């Protein structure tokens, strides 16, 4: 796993993707405002993975919020990492929590949360939420902006 800007392997390069989340390379860069409390948000409205039982595709709208410490996630590597789930079989809960934990391990943020808003499977939508702990005092936490599933009504 690359951990500094001089060793970035994906930014500005031709990256074809990864066969699995375990093979995907997540990279980080130094935070130029590490002394400032702020929130960074990544939204992936077209996240896909596979059901581990039926191999049918599952779709989610992911929202990742974090208060950076010394590191920022390099966004192209994040996109490639999320894309690596397209052929990965795992339940909604596993995908959502694994992404949050991997980012927390890489970045050591002041705080991180992930919301996985999954589209219905078998008629039931599953929403999964995980965070590293209590948000720091004074951190502005906007609503994640994703309404719960309402079907056609």
Automatic annotation (TrEMBL):
Q: Which residues form a coiled coil?
A: none
* Reaction equations catalysed: 7-aminomethyl-7-carbaguanine + 2 NADP(+) = 7-cyano-7-carbaguanine + 2 NADPH + 3 H(+)
EC no.?
1.7.1.13
Question: What's the domain of life for this entry?
Answer: Bacteria
A single GO molecular function term of this UniProt record: preQ1 synthase activity
Its UniProt pathway annotation is: tRNA modification; tRNA-queuosine biosynthesis
A GO term from the CC aspect: cytoplasm
Active site per database record: 51, 58
Family to which the UniProt record says this protein belongs: Belongs to the GTP cyclohydrolase I family. QueF type 1 subfamily.
The protein, known as = NADPH-dependent 7-cyano-7-deazaguanine reductase
Q: Which species expresses this protein natively?
A: Brevundimonas abyssalis TAR-001
Q: What is the lineage of its organism?
A: Bacteria, Pseudomonadati, Pseudomonadota, Alphaproteobacteria, Caulobacterales
């Amino acid at each position: 796993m690359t951990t500094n800007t001089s060793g970035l392997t994906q930014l500005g390069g031709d990256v074809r993707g990864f066969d699995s989340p375990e093979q995907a390379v997540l990279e980080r860069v130094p935070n130029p405002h590490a002394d400032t409390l702020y929130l960074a948000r990544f939204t992936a409205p077209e996240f896909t993975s596979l059901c581990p039982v039926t191999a049918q595709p599952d779709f989610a709208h992911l929202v990742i919020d974090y208060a950076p410490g010394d590191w920022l996630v390099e966004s192209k590597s994040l996109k490639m990492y999320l894309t690596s789930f397209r052929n990965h079989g795992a339940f909604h809960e596993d995908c959502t929590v694994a992404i949050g934990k991997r980012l927390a391990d890489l970045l050591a943020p002041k705080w991180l949360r992930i919301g996985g808003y999954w589209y219905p499977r078998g008629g039931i939508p599953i929403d999964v939420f995980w965070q590293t702990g209590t948000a720091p005092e004074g951190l502005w936490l906007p609503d994640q902006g994703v309404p719960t599933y309402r079907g056609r009504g």
